[in-house]
Amino acid sequence: MALHTKFFAHLIVTFLFLVSCPSAFHGDLHDHSDIQQTGYDSEAYPSFLSTVDGSQFDNSMMFEAGASDGLTKLSRLESSGRIINVDRFGAKGNGAEDDSNAFQSAWREACLSTVAVTLVVSQGKDYLLKPVKFSGPCKSEITVQINGVLLASDDRSDYGRDGRQWIRFDSVQGLIVEGGGVINGRGNIWWQNSCKINKALPCKDAPTAVIFYNCKNLVVQNLRFQDAQQIHMAFEKCINVQASNLIVTAPEESPNTDGIHVTNTQNIQISGCTIGTGDDCISIVSGSQNVQATDITCGPGHGISIGSLGSENSEAHVSDVTVHGARLSGTTNGVRIKTWQGAAGSVSNIKFQNIQVHDVQNPIIIDQNYCDQATPCTQQHTAIQISNVLYQNIYGTSASAAAINLNCSKSFPCRGIVLQNVNLVGEGGGAAKASCNNVNLSNVGLVSPRCA
User: Fold this and answer.
1) Is 360:397 a contact under the CB 8 Å cutoff?
2) Which of 289, 261, 290 is nearest to 275 (CA)?
């Protein structure tokens, strides 16, 4: 009896230790404390620092409790004990039979669960899906564990109802999508019928592979996206997002296959991603605020872009964007801001820091006269105001003569543009040039090339 008493006492002590000291076993799974500050002289550049304060920006990126906390995720899975496998609802996973209905039935059961639930897509299987929509709000938090392969239908008639999307998560809170599996858009049939490939064809939208719409406290991690019909993944009207450890690939000639597209989304961290496609690796468009991209490998593709913004004389706003730590190789552009003439709005408080470029056509580019249409754009007198943009610690090789191209509006010149420690040379080590029009520019430290 005494032995039993000592045994249970030991169990109680161990349990109390685990509860009070979880960090001894788990640690911080999402520590971004190594993000560097700009190191500015506030007296020399007061207007810039007053609007782009590093500490304020970092604080604004803090997620709500539970949004990206690895410990919360672990406790969620351990406490729920609720696992739903799509196979139980009739999914075959043979790559030939349509599994869409089985996935939607499994989602409905998961969404109705009153305890946290894991929806499992089995490893070693290929699940063929027509366009599917997974809607919330749900009664509890859901983890979608994609271990196998999701294959898009390559029959374009399957997308007749809404040809702009394949997989859509709509109005779901506390969602985690992960698992190490593959999401394959099988986009070749769409690329062949694109007006950018065949000029004789009319221009039509193709599906975005995965859309996260109106989601809050969202985690997408440890997945591979490939060969999207058009954009690979889009975050639209979302709040508090972490996208990490993603691999996104499509052929260099595949049209409009952006890797990660951010629109009308606030507080998003994109980290540790490798992206090579036929369009922008990351594109950030109107309504996006507090966007942080760190440790990004990009190429091939069109680089990392803010825009395009303001088409058809529309109003657009993007603010508080940091790209910190990126490697771009063989891309059309490096870090780019592109806006149409005739628009209204603003792009402000942007930081491009610690960027390495290799054989990039336009390493640093601002284009306020962007024109992506068959006929030339007419000259207009309004534009989106671009202000407070920092280019810091950017180095490498340019594949074109003009390594820096700041083409700003006559009516709305770019303001508060700062180049700090920029060293770009031509391929093979030759001299590069800078072209700067209608821009209020400051150079700090070594800047080469410099505008005349």
Assistant:
1) yes
2) 261
Give the whole-angstrom CA distance, residue 115 versus residue 80.
Answer: 6
pLDDT tens, position by position, 149-208: 999 999 999 998 778 999 999 999 999 999 999 999 999 999 999 999 998 998 888 999
Does residue 258 have an active-site annotation?
no
Out of 232, 261, 302, 324, the active site residue is 302
Task: Mention every residue, 6+ apart, whose C-beta is less than 8 A from residue 132.
Answer: 100, 103, 104, 166, 167, 168
Using CA atoms, how far apart are residues 285 and 291, in angstroms rounded to an integer?
Answer: 11
Q: What's the first-to-final CA gap in the chain, in angstroms? A: 90
Catalytic residue among 279, 280, 320, 367: 279
DSSP symbols for 235-301: EES-EEEEEEEEEEE--TT-TT--SEEEES-EEEEEEEEEEE-SS-SEEE-TTEEEEEEEEEEE-SS
For residue range 259-269, list pLDDT tens digits in order: 999 999 999 99
Any catalytic annotation for residue 232? Answer: no
Give the residue from 26, 73, 23, 34 showing the smallest Cα distance to 242: 73
Find the length of the chain: 452
Using an 8 Å Cβ cutoff, are 278 and 47 in contact?
no
CA-CA distance, 397 to 289, in Å (whole number)? 30
How far apart CA 274 and CA 245 sit, in angstroms, is: 8
Q: Which helix (H) or strand (E) holds 71?
A: helix 70-80
Residue from 391, 446, 405 nearest 423 by CA: 446
